[in-house]
Amino acid sequence: MKAVVVRPHVPGSLRLTELPDPVPGPREVLVRTLEVGICGTDADITAGQYGWAPPDREELVLGHESLGVVERVGIAVSSCAPGDLVVATVRRPDGCPNCRHGESDMCSWGRYRERGIKELDGFLAEHYVEVPEYLVVVPPALRPTAVLLEPLTIAVKAVFQAFKIQERLHWEPRRALVLGIGPVGLLGALLLRARGLEVTAYDRQDPAEPGPRLAQETGASYRHAEDADLVTTAPGPYDLILEATGFSPLDFQAVETLAPNGVLALLGVTGGDRRLQIPSDRLNQDLVLGNRVVFGSVNANRRYFERGVADLERFAALWPGLTERLITRRLSPAEFVAGESRREDHIKAVVEVSR
Ligand SMILES: [Zn+2]
């Protein structure tokens, strides 16, 4: 079968290759890949900055945002059947207490593996094999949007965790701020609008670009990050903030826009070593006297994929045809390998592996 592989930590090593067809065991499922979404992590791996090949191999099959169709199931598999649409979860547990309880996203040992990222092949291949525990069946009506389920789970988990944390008090959140409207931030804005919150989206993108326009079509308002800082442009106060820019200085400005008892979820990954002077007394005072919370969140276990399926259905009912417009570029595997996903004029690029 055809597959897209990369040699981690070797820039420019992305290539199309032929691999043996995988054969499912009695407890496994053979999936034909339909689509694979491309994100910043894939860009980092392709650029040689991240990623680990499976042990004893030099190359890794890329791709972790997937949608496929079940082609064949092993004799002992009953939870899905040929023809089912499925999205695979990404992280695989180590033996730590959280992983043992199905919460590999809360792994405490850090020896987890991730398909398409860390020591396990990804989904950018014509077929893959997986056990049913890591496959989430999606209804046929979600065929146009289900490839967005994996990035959606990042926002689903953050919002779930925020509400969980806020069980510490009586909380009726009204105003939310989403920092950065790449795919994750946009999906977060949809999620919060679907929950009835007043949403402000903040980004550097020109208001006429597709992302800001999509956000506004859901009833969110848009603030353009120009020269002024966040506190001036979007002063709030906000009950819930999702930070999804990957620009760490914004984290500290965001604290200053939090309402009393508010909660700030940090989702952006920042691999650099940026340093910053901060008004530490004032920030500390805000956190203490306002009972404010800042927490980090990384995706995502099966629970959030299952919730995300229901959220995608809700988005389709609220805004027919809107969610699929996040996919602004469709590429063949060869076009992807040639670098076509790196153009910046899109929200989400998806590689079409089969139909
Ligand atoms: Zn673990």
Biggest sheet, open or closed, and with what strands and sense? 7 strands, mixed
Helix tally equals 10
Strand content: 25-35%
Radius of gyration: 20 Å
**What overall form do the CA principal axes indicate?**
globular
CATH class of the largest domain: Alpha Beta
Protein architecture, described:
The chain is an alpha/beta fold. It has 2 domains: 2-144 and 324-352, Quinone Oxidoreductase, Chain A, domain 1, CATH 3.90.180; 153-296, 3-Layer(aba) Sandwich (Rossmann fold). It is built from 10 helices and 19 strands. Strands 3, 5, 6, 10, 11, 18 and 19 form a 7-stranded mixed sheet that branches. A 6-stranded parallel sheet has the order 14-13-12-15-16-17, sandwiched between helices. Strands 2-1-4 form a 3-stranded antiparallel sheet. Bound molecules: zinc ion. Residues 93-94, 96, 98-99, 104, 107-109, 112 line the site of zinc ion (ZN).
Short description:
The protein has helices at 40-46, 97-100, 149-165, 183-194, 210-217, 230-233, 249-255, 280-289, 302-318, 333-337; strands at 2-6, 15-18, 29-38, 60-61, 65-73, 85-88, 91-92, 113-115, 119-120, 127-130, 135-138, 175-179, 198-203, 221-224, 238-243, 258-266, 293-296, 327-331, 348-352.
